[in-house]
Design brief:
The chain is mainly alpha-helical. 49% of the residues lie in helices and 10% in strands. The longest helix has 24 residues.
């Protein structure tokens, strides 16, 4: 039985480590594309216009690859489901992680986000854009 547990632990560690590496290496996912039908008032013909589901204020999440793991549903951003939806992060990060959101984005207090942001640090402008977008999401 001890040998079975050892094999289980070995395979679990390999699977967990492989999954972690997969999400760290995975390229950013583009925002899903939606189509919108516009009717011409003079005619009954229809034209299709392509728009992304992300709002202008949420573009930074796509640019920085956040949507590989996170969604921001209040801004219309459908992303990955591995991480939590960030729609309420502006209000919840300080209580959940013990630091203001600006500090969390500079030096995250979780292992996963430390690895993500450590490999791809945010500039001051990117951090400000993310904070502004998270505040806008909370207010919607």
């Amino acid at each position: 039985m001890g040998k079975n547990i050892g094999v289980f632990v070995l395979f679990f560690a390999l699977a967990f480590g492989g999954g972690y590496l997969f999400y760290q290496i995975k390229s950013p996912v583009e925002a899903p594309v939606q189509t919108q039908t516009i009717k011409d008032t003079a005619q009954t013909t229809q034209t299709t216009q392509t728009t992304t589901s992300a709002s202008k204020e949420g573009e930074v999440f796509t640019q920085k690859g956040c949507i590989s793991c996170h969604s921001v549903s209040k801004l219309g951003i459908k992303g990955g489901e591995v991480g939590p939806d960030l729609s309420k992060a502006y209000a919840t990060v300080p209580d959940k992680h013990g630091v203001p959101i600006d500090e969390f984005l500079k030096k995250p207090t979780t292992a996963v986000m430390s690895g993500v942001i450590g490999k791809n640090p945010l500039t001051d402008d990117e951090r400000k854009a993310i904070i502004a977008a998270l505040k806008a999401a909370l207010e919607k």
